[in-house]
């Protein structure tokens, strides 16, 4: 523990927060690098910032008073506050005090992270149900091989900008409540990079990137749905100046199926059967996602009744297991009867005492549930 933070700010050990803040403001005004750029003063400026960071934070101040160093990366010592307690750093104070404009010093890097990219991928219902592996053609920016992402033509290199001498910003003296203050703005000649590229790479026009088509293999997990996004880390565009690549998102679009409609992880379809089959019961073949299966229509099945085939739906994306396949039954009444058929039906009606049925009236429109209930009650 070398630095006496109280001495740095010129305050007593029992100084209140107001006093500390006042002392810091006064010194910061004097020693700010925009006002006073010589290296020694800048060292002092860092010191007062460190002192203020510690003494303005009651927790850190306590650590310091107990003999620890709250700014040390090795932890707080006596106070027991680790590096985690050092919640904000040097530049945060600068931002808070002088505004974000002076927060970042020096030229900005030409290297930046690339953008994320997204492509749509159409898959079938079967592929969504069981998962699949797809080959994708992706058109994104990749690092230019001619200049290795540097942006300068082969045999040339970026030069230090002569307008800002490599600092990336140009300064201007203005008067403000802090007194005479130098404000900075990005250098117009180099756009703040601090360097200029006199001869840009002919392949990428100085961007360091070119567009290229790649083939990617993507594993699509079982259970994806319309709009599901699969993240492929680092497969997006590479950044300017040879920066790291962004991510690629594959958005799933499910094509419609001729037989099944998906609702969540359940599948729905309708089967139309003749009246006689509904009365007598039958089996109808259905091509499910798992192959050909017989749907069992029990004798006395009503129109609107549904038959669930458990576990024949879509795989749950999380947790495994599968949804159901639900077959909705629609009973068709015959419309064209030849004389023999009509005779048979009349005979059947007579046998059942249904030649002049009174009908069962109920208020409103009876839905599927009441029909199901009726079926249960044997009516
Ligand atoms: Zn290039
Ligand atoms: Zn410049």
From TrEMBL:
- State the similarity comment: Belongs to the DnaJ family.
Q: What information about domains appears in the record's comments?
A: The J domain is necessary and sufficient to stimulate DnaK ATPase activity. Zinc center 1 plays an important role in the autonomous, DnaK-independent chaperone activity of DnaJ. Zinc center 2 is essential for interaction with DnaK and for DnaJ activity.
User: Is Zinc-finger among the key words of this record?
Assistant: yes
Residues recorded as binding Zn(2+) 2, renumbered to this chain, are 161, 164, 187, 190
Q: Where does Zn(2+) 1 bind?
A: 144, 147, 201, 204
The J domain sits at: 4-68
Q: What is this protein called?
A: Chaperone protein DnaJ
Record's subcellular location: Cytoplasm
Residues in CR-type domain copies: 131-213
Purpose of the protein: Participates actively in the response to hyperosmotic and heat shock by preventing the aggregation of stress-denatured proteins and by disaggregating proteins, also in an autonomous, DnaK-independent fashion. Unfolded proteins bind initially to DnaJ; upon interaction with the DnaJ-bound protein, DnaK hydrolyzes its bound ATP, resulting in the formation of a stable complex. GrpE releases ADP from DnaK; ATP binding to DnaK triggers the release of the substrate protein, thus completing the reaction cycle.
SUPFAM superfamilies, per this entry? Chaperone J-domain (SSF46565), DnaJ/Hsp40 cysteine-rich domain (SSF57938), HSP40/DnaJ peptide-binding domain (SSF49493)
Assembly description: Homodimer.
CDD domains found in the cross-reference section = DnaJ (cd06257), DnaJ_C (cd10747), DnaJ_zf (cd10719)
Q: What is its main location?
A: cytoplasm
Its cofactor is: Zn(2+)
Which species is this record about?
A: Kitasatospora phosalacinea
How many cofactor units bind, and how? Binds 2 Zn(2+) ions per monomer.
| Top-level taxon of origin | Bacteria
Positions annotated as CXXCXGXG motif repeat = 144-151, 161-168, 187-194, 201-208
CR-type Zn finger ranges: 131-213
Q: Which UniProt keywords apply?
A: Chaperone, Cytoplasm, DNA replication, Metal-binding, Repeat, Stress response, Zinc, Zinc-finger
Signal peptide (UniProt feature, chain positions): none
């Amino acid at each position: 523990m070398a630095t006496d933070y109280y001495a740095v700010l010129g305050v007593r050990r029992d100084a209140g927060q107001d006093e500390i803040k006042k002392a810091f403001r006064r010194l910061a005004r004097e020693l700010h690098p925009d006002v006073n750029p010589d290296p020694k003063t800048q060292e002092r400026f860092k010191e007062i910032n460190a002192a203020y960071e510690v003494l303005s934070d009651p927790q850190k101040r306590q650590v310091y008073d107990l003999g620890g160093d709250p700014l040390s990366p090795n932890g707080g010592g006596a106070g027991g506050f680790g590096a985690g307690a050092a919640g904000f750093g040097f530049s945060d104070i600068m931002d808070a005090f002088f505004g974000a404009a002076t927060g970042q010093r020096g030229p900005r890097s030409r290297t930046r992270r690339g953008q994320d990219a997204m492509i749509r991928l159409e898959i079938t219902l079967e592929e969504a149900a069981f998962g699949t592996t797809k080959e994708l053609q992706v058109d994104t920016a990749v690092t230019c091989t001619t200049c290795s992402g540097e942006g300068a033509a082969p045999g040339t290199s970026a030069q230090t900008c002569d307008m800002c001498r490599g600092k990336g910003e140009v300064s201007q003296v203005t008067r403000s409540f802090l007194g005479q203050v130098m404000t900075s703005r990005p250098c117009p000649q180099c756009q703040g990079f601090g360097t200029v590229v006199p001869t840009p790479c002919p392949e990428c026009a100085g961007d360091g990137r070119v567009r290229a088509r790649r083939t990617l293999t993507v594993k699509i997990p079982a259970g994806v749905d319309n709009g599901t996004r699969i993240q492929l880390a680092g497969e997006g565009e590479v950044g300017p100046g040879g920066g790291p690549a962004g991510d690629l998102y594959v958005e799933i679009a499910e094509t419609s199926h001729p037989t099944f409609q998906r609702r969540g992880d359940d599948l729905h379809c309708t089967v139309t059967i003749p009246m006689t089959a509904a009365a007598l019961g039958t089996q109808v073949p259905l091509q499910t996602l798992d192959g050909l299966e017989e749907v069992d229509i029990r004798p006395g099945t009503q129109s609107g009744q549904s038959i669930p085939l458990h576990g024949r739906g879509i795989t749950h994306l999380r947790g495994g297991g599968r949804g159901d396949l639900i077959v909705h039954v629609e009973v068709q009444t015959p419309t064209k009867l030849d004389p023999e058929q009509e005779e048979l039906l009349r005979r059947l009606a007579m046998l059942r005492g249904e030649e002049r049925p009174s009908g069962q009236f109920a208020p409103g429109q009876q839905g599927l549930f009441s029909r199901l209930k009726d079926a249960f009650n044997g009516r």
